[in-house]
Amino acid sequence: MTSPPAGRPWEVVFLARHGQTEWNVVRRRQGHLDSPLTAAGIAQARRHGTALRGCGVDGIFASPMGRALTTARIIGAAISRDVAGVDVEVVDDLAEIDHGEFSGLVDEQIDARYPGARQRRAADKYRWRFPGGESYADADVRAARVLQQLSRRPARRPLIVAHEMIGRMLQRHLLGLDPHLAVCQTHPHDVVYRIDPAGRQREPLA
C-alpha cells in the first residue's frame, strides 16, 4: 500500500481522462504521440465541464499531450462561468506512459512486428516495459512525484486531466491500491472520478 502524499490534505481530487480521440476509435496506441479529439470527445469534455460546475474546483492540472490539454481547457471554460481565475496548468509528469516502439501501432501490427510481446506484457503488466518506452512501474514514480508536487499547491479541490494508464497510477496512490490491482482499473472517457484521498473512496461524478 502507498502512503498519502505529503503536504496539506486535499478535500477531494477530481480525476478526468481526456475525451475520445480519433486513434481511440481505431484502437491505435498513442502514448506520447497524439491525435485530435473526435466530436464525441469534445462533447464528453463539455459534459465534464457542466458536471464540475459548482463542485468548487480550485485548480486544474493537465498532461501536456494535446488531447488532455484540449479537454482540460474545455472543462476550464465551463467552470470559469462560476469561478473566475481557475487556469489550466500543464504538468509534464502527467503525460501518458511512453509506448516507445509500439506508438502509432494497432494490435495486429504489434503482433506481426513483436511476436509474443503482448502475451509477455499480460503476464506482468506492472513491470513490463514498452520497447524504447516506459513501464507502469516507471509511470508509478512519475505519478507519486506529481501528487507530491500538487499537495504543496494551494488547491484543495484540484482537477487532474490526464490519461487512462498514468491515471491508474494516480489512483494507486490516491486510493492506496496494490500496483497489480491498480493496472486493472478502468477509466472511460465519459467519466470524471471524485476521489476522497482521506477515506480512500472513489465515485463517478459524470
From TrEMBL:
Gene for this chain: gpm_2
Active site, per annotation: H18, E96
InterPro entries given in the database record: His_Pase_superF_clade-1 (IPR013078), His_PPase_superfam (IPR029033), PG/BPGM_mutase_AS (IPR001345), PGM_Phosphatase (IPR050275)
Name under which the protein is recorded: Phosphoglycerate mutase
Coiled-coil parts of chain: none
GO molecular function, one term: phosphatase activity
Positions of transmembrane segments: none
Domain of life: Bacteria
Binding site for substrate: R17, H18, G19, Q20, T21, E22, W23, N24, R67
Signal peptide feature range: none
Gene3D superfamilies: Phosphoglycerate mutase-like (3.40.50.1240)
Source organism phylogeny: Bacteria, Bacillati, Actinomycetota, Actinomycetes, Micromonosporales
